[in-house]
Amino acid sequence: MNITNGRPGVLARGMAGVAVVALVGGAVSSGALAQQVSKPKPPARERSAPDERPPLPASDFSVRGTVTPKGEAKFAYRDGHLRVEIFRGGERIMVGLVDPGAHTIIVLPDLPGMGSVAFEMDLPPEFGFVSMPADSRRIGFDTVSTEPCEVWRGTDPDLGTPVQACFTVDGIPLRVQATTRQGLKVAFEATELERTPQDPAAFDVPEGVRVQRVPPSLQDMVPGGGLLP
Fold first, then answer.
1. What are 99's strand-pairing partners?
2. 155 class by beta-carbon count within 10 Å (0-12 exposed, 13-18 middle, 19+ buried)
3. What's the CA angle centered on 99, arms 96 and 100, to 5 degrees?
4. Which ranges of the chain have pLDDT less than 70?
5. How far is the C-alpha of 148 from the C-alpha of 79, rounded, in Å?
6. 202 near 39, Cβ under 8 Å?
7. Which of 28, 30, 77, 20 is nearest to 54 (CA)?
8. Cα distance between residue 59 and residue 20, in whole Å
9. How many angstroms from the chain centroid is the CA of residue 192?
10. Which of 66, 100, 158, 198 could cysteine-pair with 26, CB 3.0–4.6 Å?
């Protein structure tokens, strides 16, 4: 994994590793990053106390990785907001602007003829990139490349399915596993991580783009919307 702290370089431990439940994840091929199964020496306490919560992002970052069942995704975080980019075959097919506080996402399809329209919808209940279910508990420790992370597991309150993520100590999700409303198991695993300031303009709807509200019943019909867990 390529990890930088505002400058090029590999971070062995750095700010540590964090697990966040988010979009999706996947196995990393030899051309990307092979997950290391050897675990770092954990603290004396393996499991979380009842009142402990997964760490939240402490500062700006961007993370890119593989998505299962297919594709790649890039997440950028700034000041409580998230930008999601989805790629297929090396081509970007959508951008999503997430407002976790409002629990909404604005989808901007990166497709011919759709450059002037965007779609606002509710976040799927199983989307946990920046927040885990309320019953989440730390169940262990792992590493994604050289970056240690804490493994947290919870149950989606709406679907009753497990959500699991691995967060760095500064709140960056490196691996996320969840199940969609359609029963599809999805996962995300980081291959690149940068702890660098993010451009505020990247988190706003571009000027001249018209935003249409989409009801939950039609969400899967939005181009790119079906890729969200």
1. 104
2. middle
3. 115
4. 1-51, 124-130, 216-229
5. 24
6. no
7. 20
8. 14
9. 13
10. 66
Which pLDDT belongs to residue 170? 94
Q: How many CB atoms lie within 10 A of CB 144?
A: 28
Q: Tokens standing for 55?
A: 């760490």
Structure tokens given for 228: 């969200």
Q: Is the dihedral of CA 149, 14, 70, 155 positive or negative?
A: positive
Asked if 26 contacts 186 with a C-beta cutoff of 8 angstroms, the reply is no
Tell the residue number behind the tokens 């540590």, with chain if given.
Answer: 16
Q: DSSP states of the chain as a string?
A: -EEESSSSS--SSTT--EEE--S-B-PPPTTS-PPP-PPPPPPS--S--TT--PPPP-S-EEEEEEEESS-EEEEEEETTEEEEEEEETTEEEEEEEEETTTTEEEEEE-STT-TTEEEEEEPPTT--SS---TT-EEEEEEEETTEEEEEEEEE-TTT--EEEEEEETTS-EEEEEEE-TTS-EEEEEEEEEE-----GGGGSPPTTPEEEE--GGGGGGSTTGGG--
Q: Global pTM? A: 0.72
Are the C-beta atoms of 133 and 155 separated by less than 8 Å? Answer: yes
